[in-house]
Amino acid sequence: MAGIHITDIEAAINYWRQKKPSPDGVRLAPEARALADVYALMIFRHASEIDAAEVPSHAQAAWLAWYDTTPDTPCIAICSTSQGDNLCKGCGRTFEEVQLWPGFDPVEKRTVWRRITLENNAWRFNRYAERAAENKSGTGR
In this structure, is the dihedral angle defined by the CA atoms of residues 119, 110, 2 and 99, taken in order, positive or negative? Predict the structure, then answer.
């Protein structure tokens, strides 16, 4: 089974800390606590990834709730795999990843997101990133 990367666990913890702040500065919300336990285990093991099957169900539920707030696909509607490229210039996914994306589970999707973000070669991270930011802020044309 695919693994969940520590950066996703961190992002999910921060999501829950913001969504349900500590009432006293000490106690965590149950969701953040469940994810913090997974995070601590990963730190203890010196692991950057944990097998999704090892994550307790309550922590998986908290992680999936965070995941549901993230974009589902890196697609920017400029697909070069349809023109024969093995790697899409628009989103950075491989031809196979583009084709199989609808059947991927959340962990598999986040694994691909991590790879394309680290590679930072796709147009979604350079040429069109500025346009996307402008359109979100309402300053785009």
Answer: negative
